[in-house]
């Protein structure tokens, strides 16, 4: 019973102090000054026990004491009640209570309504220890107190005056929501669902915008076919059509607000000699309506992109620094949420988006893909083709750390992301040979070089040179002609050795070939009698069969 913190039948309730709950606390007899501290969503309540022997009773007696409102009012009496001024105070008090600490509001309330000789029943041993340390008031916590708290919670709306049941319920809901936000570090700026929806809408807008723009170019191309090559940009193309309607009005319009001067000049020159057909006013009206759609969609896409960048900077600043807002948003959308992405290892982040290729490679037992969505990051794009796999692996490892900082960290700055990006860029320069791999390795290599080349090193350090030694020179005996003759003799010796070697190899090859031919002949000679014998036996069997057939 002591180990489990339960009440010993032969002893009184447990006294709370600053000592750990696992250690036995000094027993204390229940007096007439036994008070109960109970926290409600509306405020702190302090009850006095009418029946001092209630805590010594059995659990059934405690349950019966709070079975009805009348029985509860006979068992306990409200001594004092402190109502919270606002939700912030309620959240502060509830947070302190969850952590086993004494809030400032509760401290003032207990100081005002308790005497040092009183004993206080509390719902948490840690809270009792804090009250004991700060206010020097004996606190009690055991199974009987917990049963008493359950009874008070069932009848609290009737026992506390000044608050109705509906008001208490609404306060409880508000406090629960506020406390949940505090516990989960919730912030409206950190809703990654907005990113998932925004990136999906951005992709849909790009597809829709591309479809509309291609339709517009095909439609208006019948009237002005040269314009599509002169103005490749979709938005500029649509705005140009809006301004001129038909090509015959092109020459007298100033397009400097939407396109460069050289493009404008080329367009006006092409309009004069265009091979397009004429169109009616009704056709032009419908084409202009399609232009309005393209322009409005382009403007909305630009606005949505700005919104997505701001959201990514608020939710995942480190990831945005590493791979950019667009790739980071796609990673979050693919994983479902920022928290799901933070749970993935670096190897999964590296191939996220290439699941089909991965399972196809595993099925065929081929090499697995090296990158997925992360391939579109700027750092991977800057790397050389032979280094893309290594850079994507390093980048995925740093991204995994950055994502976890964004999801679980409290800082809103991108310090980790900038440091990680610098390391990836340094690794890229090392692979390209622009930086030494390791300063320590370079120092060791230099030391080894000094040991292997001491003379060169000593001269480089300023030691005097040994000078030129003429005695070390060697001259050719007999002059240049003899030297030339000697050189020819050496060449002749080498040639003779080579000829001897070739003759020896050819002789050995000839012997081997003759031996092989001889073995083949002997084998055929041995097989010949056997073949004759088998042939004779076969003829005898054939003759016997013919004889039987005739008979």
From TrEMBL:
SUPFAM superfamilies linked to this entry: Nop domain
Gly residues composition bias: residue spans: 477-486
Subcellular location: Nucleus, Nucleolus
Record InterPro entries: Nop56/Nop58, NOP58/56_N, Nop_C, Nop_dom, Nop_dom_sf, NOSIC
Biased composition (Polar residues): 450-460
Membership in a protein family: Belongs to the NOP5/NOP56 family.
Keywords, ordered alphabetically: Nucleus, Ribosome biogenesis
GO cellular component: box C/D methylation guide snoRNP complex; small-subunit processome
Keyword Nucleus recorded: yes
Segments of this protein annotated with the region Disordered: 1-23, 442-551
Organism, as annotated: Coccolithus braarudii
GO BP term, pick one: ribosome biogenesis
Protein's name in the database: Nop domain-containing protein
An example Gene Ontology molecular-function term: snoRNA binding
PROSITE patterns according to UniProt: NOP (PS51358)
Bias-annotated ranges (Basic and acidic residues): 1-11, 502-529
Residue ranges constituting the Nop domain according to the UniProt record: 315-433
One Pfam family per UniProt: Nop
């Amino acid at each position: 019973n002591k180990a489990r913190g339960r009440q010993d039948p032969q002893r009184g309730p447990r006294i709370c102090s600053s000592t750990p709950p696992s250690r036995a606390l000094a027993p204390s007899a229940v007096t007439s000054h036994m008070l109960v501290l109970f926290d409600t969503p509306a405020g702190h309540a302090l009850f006095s026990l009418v029946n001092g022997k209630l805590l010594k009773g059995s659990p059934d007696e405690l349950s019966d004491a709070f079975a009805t409102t009348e029985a509860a009012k006979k068992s306990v009496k409200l001594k004092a009640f402190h109502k919270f001024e606002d939700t912030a105070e309620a959240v502060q008090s509830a947070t302190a209570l969850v952590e086993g600490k004494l809030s400032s509001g509760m401290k003032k309330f207990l100081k005002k309504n308790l005497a040092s000789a009183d004993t206080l029943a509390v719902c948490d041993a840690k809270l009792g220890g804090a009250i004991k340390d700060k206010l020097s008031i004996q606190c009690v916590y055991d199974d009987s107190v917990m049963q008493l708290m359950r009874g008070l919670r069932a009848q609290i709306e009737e026992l506390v005056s000044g608050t109705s049941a509906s008001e208490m319920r609404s306060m409880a809901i508000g406090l629960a929501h506020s406390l949940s936000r505090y516990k989960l570090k919730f912030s409206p700026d950190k809703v990654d669902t907005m990113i998932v929806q925004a990136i999906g809408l951005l992709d849909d807008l790009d597809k829709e915008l591309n479809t509309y723009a291609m339709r517009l170019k095909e439609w208006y191309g019948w009237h002005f076919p040269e314009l599509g090559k002169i103005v490749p940009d979709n938005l500029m193309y649509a705005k140009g059509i809006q301004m001129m309607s038909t090509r015959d009005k092109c020459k007298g319009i100033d397009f400097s607000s939407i396109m460069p001067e050289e493009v404008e000049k080329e367009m006006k020159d092409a309009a004069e000699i265009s091979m397009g057909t004429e169109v009616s006013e009704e056709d032009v009206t419908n084409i202009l309506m399609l232009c309005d759609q393209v322009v409005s969609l382009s403007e909305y896409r630009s606005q949505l992109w700005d919104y997505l960048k701001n959201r990514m900077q608020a939710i995942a600043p480190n990831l945005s620094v590493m791979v950019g807002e667009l790739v980071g948003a796609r990673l979050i959308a693919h994983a479902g949420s920022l928290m799901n992405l933070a749970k993935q290892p670096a190897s999964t982040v590296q191939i996220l988006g290439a699941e089909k290729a991965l399972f196809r490679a595993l099925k065929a037992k081929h090499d697995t893909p090296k990158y997925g969505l992360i391939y579109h990051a700027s750092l991977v794009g800057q790397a050389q083709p032979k280094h893309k796999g290594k850079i994507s692996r390093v980048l995925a490892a740093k991204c995994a750390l950055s994502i976890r900082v964004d999801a679980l960290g409290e800082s809103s700055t991108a310090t980790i992301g900038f440091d990680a990006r610098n390391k990836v860029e340094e690794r890229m320069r090392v692979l390209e040979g622009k930086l030494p791999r390791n300063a320590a390795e370079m120092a060791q290599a230099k030391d080894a070089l000094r040991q292997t080349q001491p003379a060169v090193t000593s001269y480089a350090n300023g030691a005097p040179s040994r000078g030129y030694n003429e005695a070390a020179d060697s001259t050719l005996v007999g002059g240049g002609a003899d030297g030339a003759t000697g050189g020819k003799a050496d060449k002749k010796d080498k040639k003779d050795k080579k000829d001897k070697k070739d003759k020896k190899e050819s002789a050995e090859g000839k012997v081997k070939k003759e031996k092989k031919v001889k073995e083949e002949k002997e084998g055929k000679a041995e097989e010949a009698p056997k073949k004759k014998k088998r042939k004779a036996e076969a003829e005898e069997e054939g003759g016997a069969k013919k004889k039987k057939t005739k008979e």
